[in-house]
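Same chain as my last thread, 351 residues:
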Amino acid sequence: MMQQTGSLEGKNRTMQSPAGTADPPVHPVLYVDDDCALLDVCKRYFDQRGSVAITCAASAKVAIELLKTRSFEVIISDYQMPGMTGIDLLVHLRLRADPTPFILFTGKSREEIVIEAINNGATYYLQKHGSPKVLFAELEHKILEAIRRQTAEKSLKESEARYRAVFENSMTAMVIHEEDLTISQCNDTFLQMTRWERGEVEKRKNLAEFIPQETIPQIGFHHRNAGQQEATGTNRYEAEIFTRNGEGLLVHISAERIPGTTQCIISLFDITGQKRLEEELKRREDEIRLLYTYLAAANLPYRNPVLEVPEKAAAGGFGKKIYPSFPNPAPVRMWDLTPSQRNRKNGLPES
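reply #2:
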């Protein structure tokens, strides 16, 4: 069995790279074939290319032992080999949930082999026919394409896992609905808010069933145009939704289109308590304002030193004007008197 060795040419190439640049990554690849001459030619070709680092195994059993201690970005395998075929090796890996991209590289061209390879999870199938230069160039292309696909799929799975964690564990109610407003997914917070069970909502209920009939066109407009409305912020608004028992909740809704789909994700934040508190504060402010107005009006006939006090003083022989002390500041402001001015006019010490 030939083991991977570092290429002096590759090392020199790395050392001579221009300042500020880096060589592309070298991808570790396992090539399994009982044709040792082909293994050697393939390894020499990729050592010169510098994009792939080939490790060779002369049989499937040797490859399995290597895979116990090492990992590779791609596995290439011949089909017809002693002991285990290339498809036997593929099945062995897939039964152990090994997702490494697998290229069946063989001289066999029977259609049933191709179908069996694809059905068992082979990434690509390539025949060993034609010019070696063209053949290895095609093999390199498929190796790099398999790595790109694997990287993209891994990134997508990680992104989906992060998204699901945020979606499911968010303290904000969240819903994903289709273009016709059918709810395809909802999180636990939404179910707690509306008091429904998941099996009763997902793919069974329409968002329109949770909102008043008169607001359905408005909400449909917002959600159909969520992508265009992001810049203006009009995809955020307030609306009423109903719980299972018919209770109305006022919620702040934010709608966003999921890129590349017709689906929309919405978040709903319950502002019912906040609105009730704001209404109660406004009601109390109105009551206090009205109370002050009545108190001011009630005090005026007894506290006008110009109209009433002089007349009573003349009739009773009193010659002094009285400016009473006000518990309510409104009349004081109306007469434009400060506490010091009032005390001075009443003959009292200034405060």
